[in-house]
């Protein structure tokens, strides 16, 4: 992982391209009405919903990226088809609609997400929040170039400690996962469960959420959000080897000998803790999993403790 990262001019051009593509995807999305679309399910017991909007947005993005960057790898949520042999160090990571259940129910909390990696490291990205949201528009960032909502710079929370009245995003089962003592000692403020990881990460990047705990988020849920939060001055930590560590890359050098880069990235799934830089660091030093819950979570996510 010592390979030099691309020059800023390259990452900026990729940010511009991701922004252009996500605006095109927006036009596809607006051909469908939230709450008025049929839904099918990929999982058991009507779980993991998918709509025609998901499929069409992903098809549009895959086609556009393949035409412009034929050697770049593409990882997308709805299709496991590998478009190249993976020789290029660049990977585009697409979530055509994060928060499909919200969209299908007419709840305006969902996002389109495009992240770009270089050897597993997020270097650029763009996210679209829907026109029905009060903070709608395109959020975008690139390595060393800052983070923006449309053309306005955004900044994650600058607070040095979690604020009791501040808002934090949590998974629906967070009280069963995390130690109540750690939560009460440190405090995470008012909690919200949104149902869209990508949407939640934009709220962290703009400082509306002081922190967010994410468990079970796949790479297409978080790739763009990670670069957005970090360029907004926020912190991103992942749970690895039994403790919270600052996120650095989706690729572990020791894993590459056992799996292809594509499979390594597609199956990557670790709990994340995000927030204002100081807040994320403070929470990472305090928040622990409940006894007995850690092992079951890691087994579910197929992570070795």
Question: How would you describe this structure to a colleague?
Answer:
- With 305 residues, this protein is of the alpha+beta class.
- It has 2 domains: 8-152, 2-Layer Sandwich (Fructose-1,6-Bisphosphatase, Chain A, domain 1); 167-301, D-Maltodextrin-Binding Protein, domain 2, CATH 3.40.190.
- The chain is built from 11 helices and 15 strands.
- The strands form 3 sheets. The protein has a 7-stranded mixed β-sheet with strand order 3-4-5-6-7-8-9, sandwiched between helices. Strands 11-10-12-15-13-14 form a 6-stranded mixed β-sheet, with helices on both faces. A two-stranded antiparallel sheet has the order 1-2.
Question: Could you give a short description of this structure?
Answer:
The protein has 305 residues and is an alpha+beta fold.
The largest sheet has its strands arranged as 3-4-5-6-7-8-9
Outline the biggest β-sheet: 7 strands, mixed
The fold-level CATH name of the largest domain is Fructose-1,6-Bisphosphatase, Chain A, domain 1
Mean pLDDT: 85
**Topology, number of strands:** 15
Report the end-to-end length measured between terminal Cα atoms. 22 Å
Q: Could you tell me the strand content as a percent range? A: 15-25%
Q: Indicate the low-confidence ranges by residue numbers.
A: 297-305
Per DSSP, the total helix count is: 11
The name of the CATH architecture of the largest domain is: 2-Layer Sandwich
The CATH class of the largest domain turns out to be: Alpha Beta
> What's the structural domain tally?
2
Structural class: alpha+beta
Q: Please write the string of helix (H) and strand (E) elements.
A: HEEHEEHEEEEEEHHEHEHEEHHEHH
Helix content: 25-40%
- The shape is globular
CATH-defined superfamily of the largest domain: Fructose-1,6-Bisphosphatase, subunit A, domain 1
What Rg, in angstroms, do the CA atoms define? 18 Å
């Amino acid at each position: 992982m010592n390979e030099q990262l691309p020059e800023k001019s390259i990452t900026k051009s990729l940010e511009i391209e991701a922004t252009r593509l996500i605006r095109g995807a927006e036009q596809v999305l607006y051909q469908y009405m939230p709450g008025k679309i049929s839904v099918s399910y990929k999982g058991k017991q009507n779980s993991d919903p998918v709509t025609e909007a998901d499929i069409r947005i992903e098809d549009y993005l895959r086609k556009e990226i393949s035409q412009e960057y034929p050697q770049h790898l593409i990882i997308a949520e709805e299709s496991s088809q590998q478009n190249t042999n993976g020789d290029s160090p660049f990977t585009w990571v697409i979530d055509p609609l994060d928060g499909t259940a919200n969209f299908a129910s007419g709840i305006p909390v969902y996002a389109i997400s495009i992240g770009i990696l270089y050897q597993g490291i997020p270097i650029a990205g763009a996210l679209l929040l829907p026109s029905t949201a009060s903070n709608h528009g395109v959020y975008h960032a690139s390595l060393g170039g800052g983070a923006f909502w449309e053309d306005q710079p955004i900044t994650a929370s600058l607070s040095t400690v979690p604020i009791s009245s501040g808002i934090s995003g949590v998974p629906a089962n967070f009280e069963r996962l995390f130690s109540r003592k750690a939560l009460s000692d440190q405090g995470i403020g008012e909690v919200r469960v949104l149902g869209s990881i990508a949407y939640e990460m934009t709220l962290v990047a703009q400082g509306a959420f002081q922190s967010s705990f994410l468990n079970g988020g796949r790479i297409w849920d978080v790739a763009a959000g990670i670069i957005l939060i970090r360029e907004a001055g926020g912190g991103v930590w992942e749970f690895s080897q039994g403790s919270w560590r600052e996120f650095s890359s989706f690729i572990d050098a020791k894993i590459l000998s056992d799996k292809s880069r594509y499979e390594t990235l597609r199956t990557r799934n670790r709990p994340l803790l995000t927030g204002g830089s100081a807040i994320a660091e403070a929470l990472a030093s305090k928040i622990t999993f409940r006894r007995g819950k850690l092992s079951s979570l890691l087994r579910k996510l197929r992570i070795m403790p």
